[in-house]
Amino acid sequence: MQIRTGLYLLSGGTYGKLGNAYALKHEEGYILIDSSNPGALETIIDNLTYWGIAENQITHVLLTHGHDDHAGCAAHFQEKGAKVLVGKEDIEMMAQGDFGAESPYTNHVMPPCKADEVFTMDTQLSIGGLTIQVYKMPGHTDGSVIFYVQLENDAILFSGDMFFPDGETGNIASTGWKGDMNYNCARLGESFAKLWKLNLAPTIIVGGHGIPRIGNDAKDSIKIAYKYYLTTNR
C-alpha cells in the first residue's frame, strides 16, 4: 500500500500479519522502518516487488524496538546488505531471537540478528538526503524509540508501539502490548511527557500496528494517546 509518494506499508494487519513494516524512499534506496514478524517475509517481498523495489535496495532497517513482530525480518535484509539499527537496550532479545528464559511468551521467536548500530540517546541520522530524528522513548521496551522525518511537504512520525492510531476514522490511539517482562509503565509515562513537550507537528503518523493517520490534524493522535495512557495505563 502506498501511503504517499515515497512511503509504503509492506506488512501489518491490512495483510493479515502482525506488525506494520514501512519502506521509506531516499536518494540511494529505501529504509525499512520495522520489519514485521518472521512469517511476514513473503508478504514484504511480494509488496516490494509490486512497487518495483529490489530487496538489495533496502539500505537500512530502523527498528522502533526489538520485539519479534517488528524485528522479525531484520536478519533477512541484513543478509542482503542492509544495516540494522535499534535501541541499545533491545539488542539482547534480538541477538538471542526470543524474550529470554524468564518469559512465558515462548511463541515470540525470530531469526537472531546482531544490530550494526545502536541508539544510546536522542540523535539525528542522515541517510540519502533524509534527516531522521531519533527520540528514545522507553516504556513499551527499554530500548523503544520513535522516528520523525520530513519527506517533502509531510512530517512523518513513526511511533512504533509507544502508541498507534486506530479506529474507523483514526480517532482512537492505543499504547502497545504490555507482555514484555521489561515493560515499564512509569517510564512510558515519562516518555509521553517528553513527547508532549517536543510539540511535534506530524502530518502523517504511522504506528507499529493500527492505521495511518494522515492530515494536518494527525498530531491529535499524540494527545489522544497521552490521554489513553493517563486513564488506562497508570
What does this structure look like?
The protein is an alpha/beta fold and 234 residues long. Helix content is 23%, strand content 30%. Strands 1-2-3-4-5-6-7 form a seven-stranded mixed sheet. α5 (185-198) runs antiparallel to α6 (220-233). The longest helix is centred in the C-terminal third of the chain and has 14 residues, at 185-198. The chain is globular and about 45 Å long. The N and C termini lie far apart (35 Å). The mean pLDDT is 97.
Unreliable stretches: none
Oligomer: single chain
- Following the backbone from N to C, one meets helices and strands in this order, namely EEEEHEHHEHEEEEEEEHEEH
Largest sheet: 7 strands, mixed
* Percent helix range: 10-25%
Shape: globular
Computed structural class: alpha/beta
**What is the CA–CA distance across the termini?**
35 Å
What is the number of beta strands? 15
Strand order of the largest sheet: 1-2-3-4-5-6-7
Mean of the pLDDT scores?
A: 97
Measured by DSSP, the beta-strand proportion falls in 25-35%
| Whole-angstrom Rg | 16 Å
Q: Helical segment tally? A: 6
